[in-house]
Amino acid sequence: MRRYKLISCNVFQRELCAAIAGQPHLIDPEFLALGLHERPELLRTALQERIDAVSAASDAAADTPAAWGGATEKAYDAILLGYGLCGNGLAGLQARSIPLVLPRAHDCCTLLLGSRAAFLEHFGESLSASWSSAGYIERGSTYFRSSDLGRSVGYGLEYAELVEKYGEENAAFVWETMHPEIDETKLRFIETDETAGLGYSERMRSQAAEEGKEFVLYRGSTRLLRALLAGSWDEEEFLFVPPGAKVEPSYDHDRIFDAR
Description:
The protein has ten helices and ten strands. By secondary structure, the protein is an alpha/beta fold. The strands form three sheets. The protein has a five-stranded mixed beta sheet with strand order 2-1-3-4-8, with helices on both faces. It has a three-stranded parallel beta sheet with strand order 5-6-7.
């Protein structure tokens, strides 16, 4: 039996808790507030601090085998990250003594839809379109998610240059000034099987009617989230970051990032 530490945005908390119950591996979950993605540097700092702490505790556990039922290996075989690139929030994250594993996704939209192909099918013509889900309704400051993909896809290299020149926070301001938001006419909602019984899609349908918008319901999938927990990480869908390596964005639709 493998032992995994899961560190995830709490936008997936319902879906991941349901998936953990059916996994044969021992998985210790920890959920961080979804608002961190709005400040990529804060998200990066919070995740690195947790990665460092988990790695240090795991190393210490390896030196005290009695506390782990006689095991002589590290406490965790891998740290699983329930995140995508998230507006470059994961750029530069470094694995310490434990490898990191994360889905090849730009943000949580892909993870809730179940694949990059599904994301491009629904959002390919409007990468930064806003949308909602059960997690955003329950835990977000607003009911919808305003995507950061305009920064990391298509104009990715341009945005990366702004970050290098002005820093993360100032680059975000310059980007928003150069690319103002367009008033949207649709309210998109992603619903997974795990959250279908909560009634949120009907609430969003009513919200759309009140705002005079078209309501669009997308059938979500937890396939990627479940594959992350299962430990069978297809290289085309997951990035494995070995000890000492860092996450390096590639600003494309295929690999998303690599380990360097």
